[in-house]
Every structure is written in C-alpha cells, then in structure tokens.
C-alpha cells in the first residue's frame, strides 16, 4: 500500500488555480415538496465551493464574511447533476471575492443551464486568527487565460 508519505516529493506547480469545480447530484433529500433544490441548500453548496476556491488560492484558514446578491434564475430539479464553478475574481490585502455559478445538467441529456449565481467575500486568517495577506490576482500568460497568484506572502502569519 502506497502512503502519501511514501510518494515521491514533487514541487507544486508555480501557478495557483483561481477556479474550483464541484459536481453533485440532486437527490430527494435535498429537495422541497416541488421536487426542486432548497434555496438554502443551493446557497450552502455555493458557499462551500467559494470556501474551497479561496482556501486553494491562499492555502490558509478562510472565513466567509459577506454574501453578495444571489440570483436564482432556474429551479434545480431533483434528479439532475449540478456543477458549481467558483472563481477568485478580485483580491484585496486579506480578502478574496469569489463568484460562484451553479449549472444544472439533466442526467439524460447533453444540456447545461445556468441556474444560480452569487458572490462571496472571504477573508484569510493567520495562526492568531487575525486577517492575513493573500496573493494578488493577476492575469496569466497562459493561453487558457486562467488567473494565477503571485508568490504567497512570507509573513509570519502564513503556515
């Protein structure tokens, strides 16, 4: 059995991804009496995607401090696939704004519909739970156009 400690050491890729994708299935326990996803569940899933995206961006503890406008554009039916796409769209000194989109895909069709969008503001925290500096967002030179982070700050608050 190969353990993580047994794996060969490798250096991380220089660019830090500014995007996170999560996929879920909408089951009966997630829905209301109309057989559509509860709005609160949609918001929780979107916040979770934003949290993971922000954590991957700065690799430290993050907390959600603000939820911007959430736009519910389409009901999310039971029995569909949901893809959440979260992207860091702006950074401050210690904060990150993450835009999250929720797409629905019927399980039996090649169709993709934007169902919900929202913006979340998260703040990075250091070991002392005080706001910590985050890498700045900058344009990438990659042909895909993915955003990458500057080198992480080297303050004592980073782990």
Structural summary, described in words:
The structure is a single chain. The chain is mainly beta. The protein has a single domain, classed as Hotdog Thioesterase (Thiol Ester Dehydrase, Chain A). It has 1 helix and 7 strands; from the N terminus they run E-H-E-E-E-E-E-E. The protein has a 5-stranded antiparallel beta sheet with strand order 1-3-4-5-2, with helices on one face. Strands 6-7 form a two-stranded antiparallel sheet. A hairpin with a 3-residue loop joins strand 3 and strand 4. The two termini are 30 Å apart. The C terminus is likely disordered.
Total DSSP helices: 1
The rounded Rg comes to: 18 Å
CATH topology: Thiol Ester Dehydrase, Chain A
Average pLDDT figure: 85
Key descriptive features of the protein:
mainly beta; 1 helix; Thiol Ester Dehydrase, Chain A; 38% strand; 13% helix; Acyl-CoA thioesterase; 159 residues; two-stranded antiparallel sheet
Describe what is shown at a glance:
The protein has 159 residues and is mainly β. The protein has one helix at 39-58, and strands spanning 19-25, 61-72, 80-91, 95-106, 113-125, 137-138, 148-149.
